[in-house]
Amino acid sequence: MKKKLISLFILLIVVIFLSTMAYLKNESSSLHKTSNFSERSINIHEKELTQDQIEEITIAGIGDILIHDRVYNDAREGDTFNFDKMFQNVTPELNKPTILLANQETIVAGESIGLSGYPSFNSPHEVADSVKAAGIDIVTTANNHSLDRGVDAQKQSISYLDSISLPHVGTYTSHDAQKQVTTLSSGGIKVAFLSYTYGLNGIPIPEGKDYIVNIIDEQKIKEEISRAKKEADVIVMGIHWGSEYERYPSASQKKLAQMLVNEGVDIIFGSHPHVLQPMEWLEGKDGNKGLVVYSLGNFLSGQDEEYRDIGGMVSVRVQKTTNQNGQAITLLEPTFYPTFVSSEAERNYIMHPLKDSEAAIEKYDSSIYEKITNHMLQYIK
Prior knowledge:
Layout: H1 2-50, E1 53-66, H2 69-75, E2 76-77, E3 80-81, H3 84-87, H4 91-94, E4 99-104, H5 125-133, E5 138-140, H6 151-163, E6 168-169, H7 175-179, E7 182-186, E8 189-197, H8 218-231, E9 234-240, H9 251-263, E10 267-271, E11 276-283, E12 289-296, E13 298-301, E14 310-323, E15 326-344, E16 347-353, H10 358-363, H11 368-377
Parallel strand pairs: 1-4, 1-13, 4-5, 5-6, 8-9, 9-10, 10-12
Antiparallel strand pairs: 1-14, 2-3, 7-8, 11-12, 14-15, 15-16
């Protein structure tokens, strides 16, 4: 009996010993797995930090929306106006960019103050309606016709743009509004828009109302660029400059463009010459790259003199790369889509893709598309 008790006691000790060893082994294994999981988590986190995150949008610009009286008379339908038909052939292309800018050369204060054409323009409200419906996302309003009908008319124009939620930049109703940086965001990329003009056809800005329109002043521009850098990833400048009907940029345009890129502007869309001027890459003082389109010409107008009825859209891909080193903006592959405005005896104004326009071929020649494309891209390397 005593031997049996001893045997049972020894067996119990063995069982307890083995159970204890098994428990310790499991604990060790569990701790080891936890350690491996932590290491794996750290590795994944490091991978997320080092892997490039790339976001991309397309920014585009078109030229002057310059509504002569013959253009709005053609758009009249009873007691209203319809400009949609003038845009319809190019609207599909206008809707391809992520953000599209146009120069709204004429104010859109409407019929209440009286419509007018050259030299003191005021257009129907419906111009802005059609501009927005065609796919244009923002308009520049600082140009030599900004005060054609005075400060109050400009404010009425701004009020209408606001009422239809069409963003605008370059003219303002107060100093506070002027100090705000105009931005649009898409695809994780925030874009700031600036707009300035060389002058106002000799029309003076009333005392105390210098907020009404941005006049080119290098120090003022540098200050706004500095504010824009703090708020946006990309800076786009719409600038009214140069000489009318000149197909190449002046020395002063080139000098100002270089200053803008040096200060950090990424894309410059020029207007005022009413004809196309080439685009080119510029390198800034910090090694940054900027694209300048010296003039986008007329997009819709009543001018039919040589080359004034040809315009187009310049588009550029914009990539934002984010990684552990910060963020970087890259501009890629600018493209040009030329357009032509046809008309018949100051009626039937309509825009066409230049490539498919029989009217353009008849007016110019069969190689007009290639000539215009080469003209715009001749500086691009």
